[in-house]
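hiii so my PI (J.) wants the whole complex modelled not just the main chain, which honestly fair. so below is everything: two entries, each one labled with what it is. i double checked the lines twice but i was tired so who knows lol
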Amino acid sequence: MQKANSDKIKLVVYISMAVIALILIIFLILREPDPQYSERSFQTLGTYVTVRVAGEKVSTNTLLDIIENELNRINDKFSANNSSSVIYELNKNREIKADDETLFLINSALNISKITGSAFDLTVRPLVRLWGFDDEFSEKRLPEQWEIENILNIIDYRFIEVDESASRIRILKEGLEIDLGGIAKGYAVDRAINRVKEIDAGATGFVDAGGDIGIIGPKFGKLPWSIGIRNPRAESAYEINDIVHLYSGSIATSGDYERFFFEGDVRYHHILDPKTGYPAKNAISVTVIGDNLLMADALATAIFVLGYDNPGFDYFTNLGVQAMIISPDLDIKETKGFNYFRGK
Amino acid sequence: MKFINKKDLIVLIILGGIISSFFIFSYVFSDKNVTGANVFIDGVLYMQIGSEGRYEIFDNENEYLQTVIFNNGRIKVIESECKNKVCEHTGWISNSNQKIICLPFKIVVEPIGGKDDSGVDLYTW
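here's the output for the full assembly
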């Protein structure tokens, strides 16, 4: 009797196990496979870009080509160092007939210059060149005070005139130059992502342009991308002090550790304050999260220049972004919604 | 009531042993550390570093560009002739999703092997 009971229980257990195994096999066969990501890295827009993407309807290689071509197109069109770009032509001839894209980008840069009280200023190029931060081949140096004062007399975004009805842009002051480097990278990434989404709305991945990142879509279509924020005073660039998680949108960080040199014990970095002519002193790192990288990148620079004690720090949330700033004493301040991105 | 007899128990122990040894094997023999590095110049593989040491990188005209060291499962650029020194400032890397990049010389140092145990997919800086 006991043996009969035992055999019956065994039979039930084995049948249950077989049913579970069958269900698991059916699940494995029927479930949608995870997207297969492909990665491509290349240099453009004055930085090293890494793209990781997986298409839903369009081949991944086609999407990689679209992104690379779009980034290169915008770099060629708007780089102030490229002799065939519209910006090079504008700086040289002081006036151009502009297409809609150029008008949009110049207007965007002017608007950001205005709302940040010129903490971001698209005419800062002569100052950047004076310090040697204009490209990776320039010799960096601490300029003389009189040199800085001479340049400060020139730079002012209000001397850029945009006539939309005539599609014309003019530089109204002698010596003034435009550089869209502060927003062209963000714009290029936004455009590239939009182009991908236009032809394959289900594509996922990201575009990482030298640490400024635009999200194409969630990881495997359902998970956030975990993004480490660099610890500004760590010895390794990959040591982080925070992690945020993004399903979409953009994130940009500006820090005094990217490009710098020491003169004596003083660190001179590349984020210059258009009002003083010297590297901004009251922040060491700013991270901005927003819907698009154009705004996130430009505002990271502006918030850095305005500094840790800027009373208008929370104002920037009105522009659709969240920000975190680290002071030279390593104090951290963030806008109210920033913490939301720490959760998955 | 005896639910499991001796034979069942032996089968279960053997199955458990096989499964446990599989997990132990994959843990012990997994490459947690970086085992070397690929050095690319302008997208072309220039050098594969496979053993610990100090490696100098030269361009096509034999001009010295930079020095990479591989030590204790970590990689670092200790010296570079470039002007902006971002590659030197990158410090040690020891994860498969980390790279050392020198824009002026178009050099990229990528770790070989190594598990990504950083907990992040990418970095903002």
